[in-house]
Design brief:
Blueprint: E1 18-21, H1 31-44, H2 51-57, H3 62-70, H4 75-93, H5 103-112, E2 116-120, H6 125-135, E3 141-145, H7 158-162
Parallel strand pairs: 1-2, 2-3
Pfam family, one: HAD_2
Keywords: Carbohydrate metabolism, Magnesium, Metal-binding
Protein name: HAD family phosphatase
Length: 163
């Protein structure tokens, strides 16, 4: 078992070995910016979002979160709210993305050791691409599966099964 990020360089992995990274909470410490983006969206809509509501939905897809936080809405409104929320989120993290310490080094070390790397996240593809670009690891990733690619969000493992 690798216990230190630097130990990933000492591995000699078979090219059939794959590592699937989640994004939120694994590559980027995104809980606070996601909470803030939901809160700001609710402010724009004249509502509120509590930490308890956020905690109960964190990691799930927007199509599952919006009805919990805003009530039932039309598909068009759901899409608009989701897109606006993610715009706010990317604006919040754009200048200083909270990349998890050691995540970049781990990805590079695993790739040098021969592992094939993939990303499986319930988040939208635009967020995943933003994070991978900020980490400068896009070229190391063999496959990306986003919330846009699955019909069942977390806690269902579909996103990881496909990746």
């Amino acid at each position: 078992m690798v216990t230190e990020v630097s130990e990933a360089d000492s591995l000699n992995l078979d090219s059939r070995v794959g590592v699937i990274f989640d994004v939120d909470g694994v590559l980027i410490d995104s809980a606070e910016p996601h909470f803030t983006s939901w809160r700001l969206l609710a402010d724009e809509c004249g509502g509120t979002v509590t930490r308890e509501q956020f905690a109960a939905t964190f990691g799930r897809q927007n199509r599952d979160i919006v009805p919990v936080l805003f009530g039932e809405v039309s598909k068009t409104r759901l899409q608009a709210l989701s897109e606006r929320k993610e715009e706010i989120y990317r604006d919040l993290v754009r200048n200083n993305p909270p990349i998890v310490p050691g995540a970049v080094e781990l990805a590079h070390g695993l790739a040098r050791a021969g592992a094939r790397l993939a990303v499986g996240s319930s988040g939208p593809l635009a967020n995943i691409e933003f994070v991978l670009g900020a980490m400068e690891v896009t070229g190391l990733i063999s496959a990306i599966v986003s919330g846009d690619d699955v019909t069942r969000g977390k806690p269902d493992p579909q996103v990881f099964s496909i990746a």
